[in-house]
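Task 17 of the worksheet. Students: predict the tertiary structure of the chain below and write it out as structure tokens. Keep your answer in the requested format; marks are given for formatting as well as content.
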Amino acid sequence: MLLNDTSAAGFLRAAVVFGLLWWAWSAYTWLTNAIDIERSAVRLLMLGAMAGSFFMALAVPGAYGSQGLWFAVPYAVVRVLHVALYAEGLKGSPEQLRAFLPLAPWFLVSPALVLVGGAVDDPARAWLWTASLAIDVAGTVVANRGSTGWRVSPAHFAERYGLFMIIVLGETVVATGLGAREIERDGIFVVSVVVAFAAVATLWWAYFGFTQRAAERTLTRTPVERRGPLARDLYTLGHFPIALGIVFMAVAGEKTLAHPKDPLSPGGRAALGVGAAVFLLGFALVRWRAVHRIAWERLAAGAAAVALAATLDGLAAVWLLALVVGVLIAMIALERVRLRGLLPADVR
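Model answer:
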């Protein structure tokens, strides 16, 4: 979707659709943390949600065009099944059911707006889908304020969100590889592939480090009855910009390998600079929520990535990507040195 429209509006539309997908996936992560999925009725409903997700994914590239309802209808099915699964799965856990019930109206209104949006044209569609996402976020903040009924497994959340990041990084590899289909196999091809691989490897290293371990450690040490809001902030909300930044950078990687010797287009440079900045901002938010420390190196690296992408408009794409990767590598190295003497060994 974003490759077809790298204007500012295109970035915002892509972020909204990714937000809808992210919210649906996160909802099922919470669900599988709370209920027993071994029962046959629950498994059948889960399979229905999986089928809906498949149809939804196929429609994503044309979601703002002719595929609006093909995206909206299965999305609504997935979200309604989520509420049904909670109601069915929490019958034996009245405390968690009481915590979920205030959320149910919000989680039914939200997909209804997506459904209406799929039936109308843009820009009304974009506004309705944005409103849907806002209702989901507001619902989790307002309806569960002060709730102590959620029972969250820190290991489950850390594993599931870590796996999601691996999936997003894997899709980045695929997208980047597609960009290299037509370029000549020569020296610049080798350099481009090495730089693109280094970009993905650096993003992986940046995630599976201090912040990821600190989030799980903080959630583990939090009393059980207070884990719900913290898990929401660290994972459902805090990880969204991290994943979105990877998606943006995948666009930059694809455009780089498609034409490594040419300067990136304005949209490609925006995907690179904004993607790196959003990715790193997500870490800063998660770190502050987890340990109340400012991620100075990550904020500085994000600002540097934006500056490089904004000013070096005449530089060949492969060298611009290499510079941003160099900034990320320097950030990781400086961060490790600074944190070594400040934090326990299990979270450094």
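Marker's comment: Residues 154-340 form a domain with the I/LWEQ domain fold (CATH 1.20.1410). The mean pLDDT is 90.
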